[in-house]
Amino acid sequence: MPTTRRLPSRPWQPARWSSFLVLAFLAMLVSPTALAVTGELNMTDSLVGYIAVAIFVLAYALVMAEEKIHMRKSKPVLIAAGIIWALIGWVYVQAGMPDASEQAFRVTLLEFTELMLFLLVAMTYINAMDERRVFDALRSWLVRKGFSYRSLFWITGVLAFCISPIADNLTTALLMCAVVTKVAEGDKRFINLCCINIVVAANAGGAFSPFGDITTLMVWQAGIVEFQEFFALLVPSLVNFIIPAVVMSVFINNRKPDSLNEDVWLKRGARRIVLLFLLTVATAVAYHTLLHLPPVLGMMTGLGYLQFFGYYLRRSLPRSLERKRTRYSQRGDQKKLEQLGSVVPFDVFNRVARAEWDTLLFFYGVVMCVGGLGFMGYLGLLSEALYTGWNATWANIALGVISAVVDNIPVMFAVLTMEPDMSHGHWLLITLTAGVGGSLLSIGSAAGVALMGQARGNYTFIGHLRWTPVIALGYIASVATHLWLNAESFTVFG
Questions:
Q1: pLDDT greater than 80 at residue 210
Q2: pLDDT of amino acid 216
């Protein structure tokens, strides 16, 4: 391996270690492959490195202040990403290695592209189901059943916990959030509580299944934890969800939503689009587990399913309308005949255009920002600090808390890359904490970030932060439950 060259700088001073450690924490918000790219020039102790970190901190501060300054969160990180990589490019050009920085950027961009396309397909399906009135019908059904707000809070939370082990936690959260915003009729306080509950439930549900979260999938694919062994985390994950949910449910005004007078009817093809979405998820899982191909390939194939079905709906629409007009005329159902007049062809690309592009561009900016910081060498500082000087239990718990500020994917990748000598119980512990630690803040998981975009104005960073102490109780209890129930696994080394 090539020898790492350090830029000219002042001698290392132990007193500055804590400040560099904080900067390293901030530098862990990028996808696994991007983190693997570390430059030959160590810039962690250089003026360029300090400037890059300061720019990222400033940009992220603007992101967290979005609801106060009314600036979309994608804007500051897009600018920061451009500046950070410009600094890197300048340093490597001066060092006569322009190809190294170009290759690192391309690898980081590839990782973002996979993430963006995966999210784009999920958002397109969500928008398609919304346009076909699937969520309107579900809202109508829930209200007709007479469920109170408190019951709806528990129903959406339990569904999020149960669905996320099969689908991913991001898609599950998006689905449940769409239901809540339809049911709540603009009740901001209730929507905020439900979104928090959904984020906690979806992250907790994904922590005990290889398919529930990217981090669990990484551990499974690495061969460290077998498929059936993940279910040892079922009870700790359930504890993580139940404790904050019980506390938050006490503060819900237990009233019933206003009755719906409208006759909600599903548009043509609605049920088949739901089935196509489930088929798309199954395709993504099969591509990854059976063919060892990236899940995004399965998701894009699923987008093809939707495009072909949209083509069928458009071509067969005149025939369908004529058939229904004849049937409704024979029945004398004037209301149905009037509804047929509002039928419009299904357009897949219109659904794509309605995706949450601010969220997608925010992901681009963040991945590129911290991909650059990782390339500068800040991940190495954190790697050296944790498992060398800390007990594995406390290190894993701390990493879970760190994932609330950054993202759990790079946290888990860093651990897998370091390969610390840990027992099987400790590997399960980091799987649990990396999976549920992101629930402590709204920006700590993809589910939370996506819901801030989907329920903009109702679910916010500050709104989530107010309930962080309650969520922390669930986090602590879930860790304690794992240490107690799976105590014997801490003596078995994987």
A1: no
A2: 78
